[in-house]
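Long-time lurker, first post.

We've been arguing in lab meeting about whether zinc ion would sit comfortably in this protein at all. Half the group thinks yes, half thinks no, and nobody has a model to point at. So I'm putting the question to the forum: if I give you the sequence and the SMILES, can you give me back a predicted structure of the complex? Inputs are below. Any interpretation is welcome too.
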Amino acid sequence: MALFALLGAAIGSFLNVCIDRIPAGKSLVTLPSHCDACGHHLSVKDLMPVFSYLWLRRRCRYCHAPIPWRLFWVELGSGLLLALVYWRYGLSIDFAITASYCYLFIVLMVIDLEHKLILNKIVYPAMVVALLISIFLPQSRIIPLPWPETVDGVIGGAIGFVLLLIPALIYRGGMGWGDVKMAGLIGLVTGFPLVFVALLMGVILGGLVAGILLLLRKKTRKEPIPFGPFLAVATIVTLLWGNNILSWYLGLL
Ligand SMILES: [Zn+2]
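Top reply:
Settle the argument with this. Predicted structure of the protein with zinc ion, as tokens:
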């Protein structure tokens, strides 16, 4: 698990590059890593995930400009998450698919937090990949359904899209088209019936946090709180424990 945490943190430093460069339309591969403040190229010892951050005390080695906290949290979160996915699924196809999806949603979440945007250039290709995975590598089910499991992804995607399309049409401006498309992607990724778990959890999480922020007067009603990050967190939890949550819930009925 420690090994996977280290590997995950290294992937996290690549995710940070994606989060910086995809919204700006920059190439992910050609530019070497550099300090945003002084432009100095970073060497391997500056790029040790999590550790360089702590050794260098959150500052650039060359110009001493502070490094944003986000780099640290994404690396740490990516590391812990990979260890968690390994602990949950072992070394398997499910491990590879779940880990990739978790990283996809980390990138979507942080870009939404920083830019209030859910980028089509990430969501559309991800939809195609998720559709292919749902057809060729469908998830195992915990409840019997009358149709083949190869269509669970498509059904989940359609449900996710429609469930968020309705509030987006009713409360114009409250929820963006980005959220609607993201809900479609979440349905493709989690499939039917787990799409309900992911979306419901996202709504509850978003409502709780929005309520707390309103109570603490950190936000006013006029300021929209991006919904994408809550959907992303809920999707990651669903990818890890969705079936457990569903069977617990069905057991209650
Ligand atoms: Zn610098």
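For your lab meeting: Residues 35, 37-38, 40, 60, 62-63, 65 surround zinc ion (CB under 6 Å). The mean pLDDT is 90. Whichever side wins, do check it experimentally.
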